[in-house]
Each structure stands twice: as structure tokens, then as C-alpha cells.
Amino acid sequence: MAFGFNGKFLRVDLSKEKLDIEEHDESFYRTYFGGRCVIAYYLLRELKPGIDPLSPENLLIFAPGVITGAPISGSGRNSVGAKSPLSDSYGEAEAGGFFGAELKHAGFDGIVIKGKAKHPVYLWLSDGEAEIRDAKHLWGLDTGDSQEAIRKELGDNMIRTAQIGRAGENLVRFACVIQDLRDSAGRSGMGAVMGSKNLKAVAVRGHMKLKVADPNKLRDFSKWLVENLPSSLHDFGTGAMMTAHVLSGNLPTRNFRDGEFPNPEAISAQTIADTVRVGMAACYACAVRCKKEVKMEEPWKVEPIYGGPEYETLAALGSNCGIDDLKAICKANELCQRYSLDTISTGATIAFAMECFENGLLTSKDTGGMNIPFGDSEAMVNLVEMIANREGIGNILAEGVKRAAAKIGKGAERFAVHVKGEELPMHDPRLKRGLGLGYSVFPTGADHNNNLHDTGTTNLPGLGIFEPVPLEDLGPKKVRLFVYYTNWRVISNSLLMCNFLPWVADVEKLTDIVRAVTGWDLSSFELYKLGERSMNMTRAFNVREGFTPEDDWLPPRFFKPQTSGPLSKMAVDPESLQEAKELYYEMMGWNRATGTPTKAKLAELGISWVADEIETG
Amino acid sequence: MIALGSARIKIVAYGKIRLYLGENFNDEVLVEDGSSVRDLFEILEKPEKEIWMANVNGLLANEKRILNDGDEVSIFEPVGGG
């Protein structure tokens, strides 16, 4: 009896308009679990190295995991993966909500899509059946209108959707996949890959209950959670206590340049609760209930169906653009949901443009007559529209900061804050040194989700690290903490389990949950190895694509202090980062000089076949 | 007021720490010369398992930072992202 999975993946060839079912046995699930590991499995096995990510050859993979859809908080997540058009590296993004659970309940453990449809289409999956349907009438629609049309024509208001808006259709390199209008598989440009395939949406409905091994045990965890809810998340969602971000220097301000942001509470989750918030919503089966819903009538109309801004959004479209106008941020967030734009990369790219403007590298001649200084909230909202439409300067910015800087020239590279082409999320590595190492070495580029946040995590007793490691440390003790912590944390993206649940960092509890869902007699050791497997497979993908240790590096801005504020005397020491990076490679069992997984390490993880894909270290 | 020495330190606490220190907490303490941020946290009875952070006179400070008469210390908890 299989618990936690259906044993079936849907294979879609859009060029040939062909659908197939691929079956996997239990050993596949116990090796790869789902999400990130499954995406890396398909990309390594089936993608030719060096392909254009926006070509029909790329694969687009929707991958929930063995936990997705189980009756326990945090199980609503799914991953979307492909070779990234933003970074040309391994690409992946995760989203909460209901889509992943619905996919499992429809009888599928994932969807692997290749090719390109001759005209816009959408996929319709329902209780073990699947079909490709015409989407010509949906192309160009905002996600809200498109979802409404799909639900109407299929006659079911409970259909869950993963969609693109005009940004995905226009191949904006940081377009994302919007699920149920408010949940974003945000990073890595997965929406552009979807657009390149002429795939407007995936619509899913399922009534097949996912079997779990020990529902009573899961109920016990649910009871425990009610007594131990993360109260700030439950009450406000992310983005509470913006003042603390400013006091620590963590809040990116004016393109990560400055440290002073006078009115942080103007854009905090508490202020949202007091002003524009009309509700809080939960993901599938989740008691944390951290999703904001905001509504506004003026000066812009904002519809609550599109949710509300998270911390990353508040900082990216707010402080990082020098903006403390909450209503403008809410409108820009809504536009990103309508058009399928990653709010992090969108905000970071606008901040880049604003700094270029302030330094004369862009002028009003380049922007269609618009001044775009830091702090101009109307300009920010306009630029979101222009990026999604690839209109005027928006056409250059839609390429992301790395490519935009190359096009603008005149030294614009110094304002392009990215790693491997992916714009930085909203945490400053001058403060969080371990996080800076993570930004440097992670397979998708700068990622905050699977990363060590040194301020809050100083030890890991569950894995035998007891002594707290100081915030500013980047020596062997920090690298060890980083290795253990990120190898553990990344398993969330294969299981999938939301990182906001308090049991994610609790080694025993999370192991117990996986046992209760799957019925497997597995150990924490086995789960830890899953994390290592995931890190090695994604590393191998990037090695095969030609990435080298030189690509594992922070933007130059972070080797100098902020111009003002709490970190105006602190910066990352490049020599320490170099040493930490090489030590990380070595602790991971990779070649210290090349960062390449060794044959021995891949064999130890039971994935020797990966060694055939790369020149091992 | 907590008075253990002659160095006058102004405290501004945020979030849960503000609640923890209590409504009657005076926002100034007198500490011994040469006291550090870590000493200040001990004086304020920081619970062992909690992580507090400090900003002294507008700059982020670690627990070894020595406090001087007239310093203003903001105390806050680390916050996550997402």
C-alpha cells in the first residue's frame, strides 16, 4: 500500500499534443521524495546541456512532494522547476496555497511538460484524467479574469489554477507562476518558461483522498500546533516588526546601498492590519494562516482576491526603492499577481533602474519622459506595468538586472545586485554572513528560502551543534552550521513542507511527520541524506551547464559598508568569503578547487548515475 | 531604576522584549563602567534561550560591545523574512 503518493506523473508533449502517464515505484519516492529532488532528476536525465531555457526543449515541471496534500499544516506546497531563463542555472520556485494538494488529490504526483504548443493552451487535470484545451481566448487576460473564465467553462468554482499573466506571455525573464491568484512560485523565471511553451494555465480538480499511514499521529501534531502557533505569523503574516529590520541593518534600502529608512512601520504588517487589510487566509490544511488579504479603493483600486504583500514584497517594492507608501506597494503587489511577476526581482530591478537614474546612466529620455528617482511611488507602479508589457525602458528591465546592466552599459553593472543573474532577496549579507555564503553557492542564485538566517539560527542541537556561533563569524564553525542547517532545510523543498511551521527545524518532529504520512520506517539520517542528495543533484546540473566557482560570489556592493545606518561600519570580507566557500565545497564532499561533486560523494548518496552527467571532482 | 554603577544607558526596547521588561520598566539604567551589551542583557534578565540584538547609537553592536555613559541602546529580537 502506497502512502503519501499516487505513483503517477503526467507527461505532456505540447509540440505533439500528447499526454502520457509515467509510473514510478516506491523506491523512486523514497530516494527523491518530490519537489526539488524530482525536478533535478528529470532535468539531469532529460535536458541537453546548453539549451535555451525559452526554447521548446526546456522542461517545465510541477512537483509536489510526498507530504503535499496530507492532512497536516504546511502541506500545501509545491515546486515548479526548469532551467532558468534568468540565471541559465537550475531554476525552481515554490508556492503555498492549494494547487499542489489539489494535484495530489487529482491522482498525480507531478507534471513534466516539454515542447511548445502551436497556439495558447491550458491543461485540465481532474481525478486521474488529463486533457490539453484551447486557451486562445485566455491569452492576454489577467490571472483573475483567466481563472474566472476557466472555472466558468469547466463548471466548477473549486478548480485550482497555476497560471501566467501578460508578464509570462511576454517572456519577462523573472515572470512567475501564479497559483490561485495569490500564491506565487516566484523565483527563477518559471512563468517565462510557461509562456515560452504557449501554456497559459494548468487547472486542477481532485476528489481522490490521499492515503496517509497514520492519520491519528498527524492529528496529534495538529493539536500540538494549535498550542504552539507562531503567533506573529498568525496575527500579521510576514513583515511585522520592520523597525527591527532597520535597527539590525537587514532591511534593503535604496538598492542595498543605504541603511537609513526613517519610517519603517509605515510599510509593516501591523500597519497593513490597521489600514488596508480585510482578512487573513490559510493555505491547504494549515492553522498558521499567514496570508494577508488587502483591499483599497483609492488612489488605486486593489482587489483582495490577489492577497496582500509579504515581507519580501514590502521590502523589494518598498524600502529597496526608497518607498514608504504602503498603498503604492499594495497596488504594485496586486499588479505582480495579475501579470505574474516575481515581486522580489521586480522590486530589485526597479531599484536598479532608480539608482541608474540617480547616477545619470538612465535619463528621462530613456524612460519616456518619466523621472524615476528613489522614493517615487508613482514611477515604481508605472515601471511594474512597463516591465510586464515590455514597454519602453520596461523592455530592457524585463531582462533582469544582469542583462539590463549589460545593455545600459556605462558601468551600470555596479548597480546590478544579483548572483548568477538572480536578483537578491530582501536580507543583507553584510549582516547575515552565512546567508551571504548561501546567496553565493546556491543552485538557483540568490535564495533566502533555504538559507541560514544567522540572526535567528545560531546552533542546531537536533543535529549536534550546541555552541552558538556568533552572527559576524564566517569561519569553520559557521560553515559547519551552514552545511548542517541548509542540508536539513532544503529537504522541505522535496517533501514539501512549509518552512514557517515550527517543526521544520525540529529534526525529530519532522522525521515523525514523514513517517506518519508515508509509513516508512525512516530515520533523520535518511532525511538528512535527502537534503544532501538534493544539493548534489542541483550542483551537478549547474556544473554540467558550465558554472564554475567564480559564479559563486556576491555582488561587489557587499564588500563595502552601507552608506549610512547600522551597518555603516560592517561589510563582508572577501577573503573570509572565499575561504568559507572552499570550506563549504570540502565539507559537502566536493572538490575544494572546482566545487564539483566527487564520484565518491555521489555514490555515497546512491546517485552514481549523476556522475555520468558531469566531469566529477 | 536599575542602578549598578554610574554609566547612564538609555534603553529602547521593541516588540516582545518591551512587553517582557514590563510597563513599569524605566528606560534608563545605570551600569558599571566597562559593562558590555552582554552584561546589560544579564542585568535585564534576558531568558537564556532567547536571542536579543542590540543597536548602540545607531550602529549594530555585538554582545562584546563596551557601553559608555550616555549610550542609547535599542534592543530587539531578530525577525525572519518570507
The biggest beta sheet of chain B is recorded as: 6 strands, mixed
Number of domains of chain B: 1
Distance between the termini of chain B: 39 Å
Which structural class do you get from the secondary structure elements of chain B?
alpha/beta
As laid out across the biggest beta sheet of chain A, the strand order is: 2-1-6-3-4-5
Shape label of chain A: globular
Most strands sheet of chain A:
6 strands, mixed
Indicate the mean pLDDT of chain A. 97
Proper CATH architecture of chain B: Roll
Alpha carbon gap, first and last residue of chain A: 40 Å
Structure in a nutshell:
The complex is a heterodimer of chains A (617) and B (82). By secondary structure, chain A is an alpha+beta fold.
Describe the secondary structure blueprint for this structure.
The complex is a heterodimer of chains A (617) and B (82).
Chain A: E1 8-13, E2 18-23, H1 26-32, H2 35-46, E3 60-63, E4 78-83, E5 90-95, H3 99-105, E6 111-114, E7 121-126, E8 129-134, H4 143-154, E9 160-163, H5 166-169, E10 177-179, E11 183-185, H6 190-196, E12 199-205, H7 215-227, H8 231-236, H9 242-248, H10 269-274, E13 277-281, E14 291-294, H11 311-316, H12 326-339, H13 343-358, H14 377-389, H15 393-397, H16 400-408, E15 418-419, E16 422-423, H17 433-441, H18 476-489, H19 492-495, H20 507-518, H21 524-544, H22 574-587, H23 599-604, H24 608-611
Helix pairs in contact in A: 2-21, 12-14, 17-18, 18-21, 18-22
Chain B: E1 2-3, E2 7-13, H1 15-21, E3 28-31, H2 37-43, E4 53-56, E5 59-61, E6 72-76
Parallel strand pairs in B: 1-3, 2-6
Antiparallel strand pairs in B: 2-3, 4-5, 4-6
